[in-house]
Design goal:
This protein is mainly beta. 13% of the residues lie in helices and 43% in strands.
């Protein structure tokens, strides 16, 4: 401990000497952010600190030193909460017996969380509480309480660690006086999936410390730490440290890229890099609406008398904004239109642009503009705008809030406008559309390697026979793949997902989907989807989904039911013997801060029954980050490694990467394990995904976009 103190003093003196005489070079293009530890979460090297990434941030981290190599994904759904999924390759240990995994090295999966308990104040440090490798095998299991204080360019950290972080045992456990259970730590290594709560904050305890210094003029962060952890050891390579001090440097090369180099334990070098993205809000300016020239009163009066001229002018002007008029009815005092678009991510922006275009063509006698936005070929709501109030707000003579008070958001209680409107653009059925693009298919976190993937050419088609009746097809042709599997599935329950190796290998050229789908709304606030065909890569059959989504409420109810049969591995038109019925009762709730809770209760593909909880957060930019967990009537032994199903996902609106508006999203889901328990049927066009954000609350949330 004395030796560590001397090194910390010398390090601080060195850092001070580097910046004794600051000058204009202290300015650096990118502000230096809190960097990643070796484990991927925000920290120093082997030890954590109380720093966090900003909300709606993602970090991909890679760190390598023999024998442990870490690949991690870290996310911050809130500025006070950080979660990390980590995949570790231990290169000097075998995964298992050779008949199962060949010569593959040991792979370990872990999940970490860190919570900000106390915010940093002028005199007090930030304090965080964290759990490392929870519900994992326990190889790196640790708990900690750490405080971090910023002093000029210094960041000082001091913490208490348990588990692996407490290996030095240099201080007595402060919780020993609370209960005898804290005195001894139970061994918690196993298959993973179990929360060893009784072991948390128990057993050997150590005091660790860290010091960081920002060299802003160079974009460098110097790191020094007193490391009390004892890494996983085996009989082949001794990892016993020669020193408890680790030193390193992090180079902030770009706003999104950090490079790291460290010398640890007196016997090993480690290299690392991190890719970080901040998706809290859209930082790329988007073009405003096109200037709309308002017709003089005489021309508007003529248009009102010759409605065909008005409808054609409106239709043409809307198409210039990539908004497609589906129906329109022009009365003496109001205009009602139905619109569809695939350009905008929000509901209100196309509504506002449609109202702006219509207002320029309408006579002064018109008092209301009613817009019915469509999604999934179905009208989702009826938004009534006061024409005069809208024009005032659009000319900065009023506000969006004032406009909302004079507006109405309603459910559709009668026939769609496109079935009764005075003007209905001609639509010729059948309508055929297609897209072609490269695609990526992968398996992550298997014993063969962290990532096995396929680059393929994807062709997607849609053949619309009538409104809401569509045949969807998706075909894949292999370009290149790295699939090389060695471990078969030994699951004792039906292999509804664990035969993924066979599907990936034999189905490199496949028909991923060929599905006939019909959607309709029988009554107000109720939506129905029926489908049949090759529903996903592994199953085909028939079934459907029902959703009740009241427009003025922040909840929804649903139900899905399908009769399916397992497809052959080549993913053509033949089937295997296994068939089942799967279905769930569904509940959706919008919580404060745009947090969504989704709950599913029912029967899964393997015949097991249970419940799935899904918690996600949506940000102003449209970025979504979520986690889920499924627990069924399968025992931990029947489920296998991991004990139960869980994972996390995120979706990024493509418009964040373009200077104009885009409606698409890039989605990524991470399943630590491909198991048969808790397996859902993959359904295209999930109803809540289409109609979930069409209620009054979502429209109000994005109301300001109406004038954008």
């Amino acid at each position: 401990m004395k030796k560590a103190c001397r090194f910390f003093k010398l390090f601080a003196l060195f850092c001070f000497s580097l910046n004794t005489f600051p000058n204009t070079d202290d300015y650096f293009l990118f502000p230096i952010k809190a960097s990643a530890s070796n484990y991927g979460n925000t920290g120093i090297l082997e030890t954590p600190n109380a720093r966090f990434m900003g909300p709606a941030s993602l970090r991909i981290h890679f760190s390598s030193s023999y024998p442990n190599e870490y690949t991690a994904l870290t996310a911050t759904p809130f500025d006070w909460f950080e979660a990390t999924y980590r995949y570790t390759e231990i290169k000097n240990e075998k995964y298992g017996q050779s008949f199962y995994s060949g010569n593959q090295s040991l792979k370990d999966k872990g999940f970490d969380i860190k919570i900000l308990a106390i915010e940093e104040k002028s005199l007090f440090p930030a304090v965080a509480i964290g759990l490392r490798d929870i519900a994992g095998t326990g190889l790196f299991s640790s708990e900690y309480i750490v405080g971090t204080k910023k002093l000029d360019n210094f960041d000082l950290s001091l913490g208490l660690g348990w588990g692996v972080l407490g290996s030095a045992d240099n201080i007595s456990n402060p919780f020993n006086n609370l209960h005898d259970s804290f005195k001894k730590r139970d061994a918690d290594q196993g298959q993973g999936g179990n929360f060893a709560i009784k072991s948390w904050f128990s057993g050997e305890t150590s005091l660790f410390a860290g010091l960081e210094y920002d060299l802003k003029r160079y974009g460098l962060r110097l790191k020094l730490e007193y490391d009390t952890s004892k890494p996983f050891e085996n009989g082949k390579v001794s990892l016993k440290p020669k020193t408890d001090l680790n030193a390193g440097v992090s180079y902030h090369l770009y706003d999104w890229l950090d490079l790291g180099l460290s010398y640890e334990r007196g016997n090993q070098f480690r290299v690392s890099f991190s890719l970080t993205g901040d998706f809290f809000r859209d930082t790329i300016p988007k073009p405003g609406p096109k200037n709309v020239i308002k017709l003089d009163q005489d021309l508007r009066e003529k248009a009102s008398k010759n409605k065909q001229i008005f409808y054609q002018s409106l239709n043409r002007s809307l198409r210039d904004e990539s908004i497609y008029l589906q129906a329109a009815t022009y009365d003496e005092d109001k205009l009602e239109i139905s619109i569809a678009t695939n350009r905008f991510f929000s509901t209100t922006r196309p509504v506002g642009r449609s109202a702006r275009i219509a207002s320029a063509l309408l006579s002064d006698s018109v008092e209301e503009i009613i817009v019915r936005p469509m999604n999934g070929d179905m009208e989702t709501s009826r938004i009534t705008l006061n024409k005069k109030e809208f024009e005032d707000a659009d000319q900065y003579e009023g506000s969006a809030a004032e406009l909302y008070l004079k507006s109405k958001v309603e459910s559709l209680s009668h026939l769609p406008l496109y079935e009764s409107a005075e003007f209905q653009p001609t639509v010729d059925f059948p309508e055929f559309r297609w897209t072609m693009s490269p695609g990526l298919k992968h398996q992550i976190g298997g014993p063969e390697g962290f990532y096995l993937g396929q680059l393929y050419w994807r062709t997607d088609t849609s053949l619309k026979f009538a409104r809401n009746l569509t045949l969807y097809t998706s075909i894949g042709l292999n370009i290149y793949d790295t699939f090389d599997f060695a471990n078969p599935s030994f699951s004792d329950i039906p292999h509804v997902r664990s035969d993924i190796q066979e599907y990936l290998d034999e189905g490199k050229n496949n028909i991923a989907r060929m599905q006939l789908e019909y959607m309709f709304s029988p009554v107000k606030d109720v939506y129905v989807r029926a489908d049949l065909g090759l529903l996903e890569e592994m199953f085909g059959g028939l079934g459907g989904q029902v959703l009740y989504r009241p427009i003025k409420k922040r909840y929804a109810f649903g139900m899905s039911l399908h009769k399916v049969r397992q497809r052959d591995y080549d993913q053509r038109f033949s089937f295997r013997d296994y068939e089942t019925t799967t279905g769930h009762l569904e509940f959706y709730a919008e919580l404060p801060n745009d947090v969504y809770l989704q709950t599913y209760f029912g029967k899964y593909l393997a015949g097991d029954k249970g419940i799935t909880l899904d918690l996600s957060r949506r940000y102003e930019s449209g970025f979504v980050l979520g986690i889920f967990a499924t627990k069924t009537n399968l025992s931990a032994e029947e489920f296998g490694e991991g004990s139960f199903d869980k994972g996390f996902y995120f979706s990024i609106p493509t418009q964040l990467f373009y200077p104009d508006f885009r409606s698409g999203v890039i989605s990524f889901g991470l399943h630590p394990l491909t198991k048969d328990g808790g397996a859902f049927l993959s359904q295209q066009n999930q109803l809540f995904g289409i109609f979930g954000e069409t209620n009054q609350h979502s429209i109000l949330r994005d109301w300001d976009y109406l004038l954008d």
